[in-house]
From TrEMBL:
PANTHER family: IMPORT ATP-BINDING PROTEIN (PTHR24220). One of its GO terms (molecular function) is ATP binding. PROSITE patterns: ABC_TRANSPORTER_2. Transmembrane segments: none annotated. InterPro entries: AAA+_ATPase, ABC_transporter-like_ATP-bd, ABC_transpr_LolD-like, CP_lyase_PhnL, P-loop_NTPase. It comes from the Bacteria. Pfam families: ABC_tran. NCBIfam families: CP_lyasePhnL. Keywords: ATP-binding, Nucleotide-binding, Transferase. Its EC number is 2.7.8.37. This is Alpha-D-ribose 1-methylphosphonate 5-triphosphate synthase subunit PhnL. Residues 4-231 form the ABC transporter domain. It comes from Gracilibacillus halotolerans. SMART domains: AAA.
Amino acid sequence: MTMLEVHNFGKTFTNHQLQTTRQAVQNIQFRLEKGQFLGIVGKSGSGKSTILKSIYRTYLPDQGHIYFDSDRFGKVDLTKITERQMIYLRKHEIGYVSQFLNVMPRTTSRELVENAILEMGESESVAQSEAEKALAHFELDKKLWDMYPNTFSGGEKLRLNIAMATVKKPRLLLLDEPTASLDQQSKVKVKEVIEKLKNSGTTLVGIFHDIEFMENLCDQVYDMNKRKLEVS
């Protein structure tokens, strides 16, 4: 079953102050079946993050189509669905992990992960149990569980970000350099969760500069420099 299909996708950005338009990416095409993992590689500035942000619709795509097989809405074009539909998909079906943590102030690490689980309709007892398992798995120090993450290091914030996204077990998970500031031991933990999600049917698209991390993980690799999809 095809979970995600990107067809002739392109994105431009306009600088209104300078009155200039720049083509960030164009003619991007790939297809992913349920449970597959696509890795995107390429030099900095080649448009890797633009693709992920357009799938998540942080950026509004302006060329081509992005088809997603939604559990609730069926096959939809993410470039055309309503904001209300997109908000639902972000909450229930599509996860996004970036290098940066942007969360509500005065919310502890434990509460952030619990809230992610509660959004999926789980009970408070399940949310509490699963949140503790996730925080422990990603080795976030127990004394940080009930603290506000604005004081955390970059690596601690990233581990929390990954925990919040993966506990929801989304149909589609987008990973924007999720291991950028992690040590080797933390990278192994991330890989374990990715493999577990993949085996349970989650479809993934990820950007990694650490090519070794991607070995034996990706089914396909999209090379931004060659504009070519390769079977891993």
